[in-house]
Every structure is written in C-alpha cells, then in structure tokens.
Write a structure and sequence with these properties.
single chain; 165 residues; alpha+beta; three-stranded antiparallel beta sheet; 4 helices; YdbS-like_PH; transmembrane; PH domain-containing protein; transmembrane helix
Length: 165
C-alpha cells in the first residue's frame, strides 16, 4: 500500500479465493430463477411442453457451463490495489475497465455485505468518487480486509490535500 505517485499500472491484488464459490452461487440462483419456472410450466402444460422445456434445458446447460468456467476466469482477470495515492481496479472480460481514483477525488468509503456475501465471509468496499464514471466497487474482499481498507482509505483521504468536487 505504499507508492509515492499515481501511475498507470496493473493493480497487484486478486480477490479472496472465496469469491469463486460466491460467484458460482449467484450464477446458480440466476439460472434457477430462469429455468425452473419454465420447467415447471413445461411439465404442467402439455401443449406447450416443447416450447417451455427446450428453453429451460438451454438455460440450464448455459448456466452449468457458466458455473464451471466464468468464476475461474473472473478471478484471474479482476484485480485491485490501494496505495497511498490512489485506488486501482481492473475489471472486465472482453472489454477491460481500468480505473484509477486518486485520493483527492474520493468522497465516501463504504462497506456493504448482503446475506449471500456474509455466508461466504466476504464484503464489498464501495469507493464513491467525484467522477461521472461512478463508484468503484471491490466486490469479494475478506470481511476484515474490507473494514481495514475502509479505515485506511478514510485516513488517507483525510490526509490528502485537495477537494473531491
């Protein structure tokens, strides 16, 4: 967390490995929400069976393939880092988004945690900046690490001259 100036470079840290099962659970829930109603209706409505069970099966196959591949890929690609001068993130799969938020532009720092994240011991650090690009989210940090980063960012922004407007 110590760099003397803000420079364009890849962030160094991967997210906690527990983020992969969290992402898998999110994909499984989304797949089930889409496929199960179609499957149930396909079973109950005989004349529409092929029109309902076909898409349900396709959604299930795509969901299972996504469960197996996407979380591993996302974990390799997504990066983050906090230095004394900026917050760096690198996200995206095909279209990469590389964000750097200088400390002088940070307005608020929050940690959030939904019930699913909590069950995996993860949190999201949300850094709101004075930027039209919006907030920076570090999703999938270990709970204590997210709290420590929020505290560190608060100290750094307090000590950084400038105005986040």
């Amino acid at each position: 967390m110590t760099t003397s100036r803000t420079t364009l470079r890849p962030p160094q840290h991967q997210f906690d490995p527990r983020v992969k099962p969290w992402w898998r659970t999110q994909i499984a829930i989304a797949t089930a929400v889409l496929a199960l109603p179609l499957a149930v209706l396909g079973i109950l409505i005989a004349p529409a069976r092929i029109w309902l069970l076909g898409p349900a099966a396709a959604i299930a196959v795509i969901g299972l393939a996504s469960l197996a591949t996407l979380p591993v890929w996302w974990h390799r690609v997504h990066r983050w880092e906090v230095t004394d001068t900026a917050v760096y993130t690198l996200t995206g799969y095909f279209w990469r988004t590389w964000r750097i938020a200088p400390m002088s532009r940070i307005q608020t720092v929050d940690t959030t945690q939904g019930p699913l994240q909590r069950s995996f011991g993860l949190s999201t650090l949300v850094v709101t900046t004075a930027s039209s690009a919006g907030e920076i989210k570090l999703e999938g940090l270990e709970q204590d690490q997210a709290a420590a980063l929020a505290e560190r960012l608060t100290e750094l922004t307090d000590a950084t001259p400038g105005d986040a407007t």
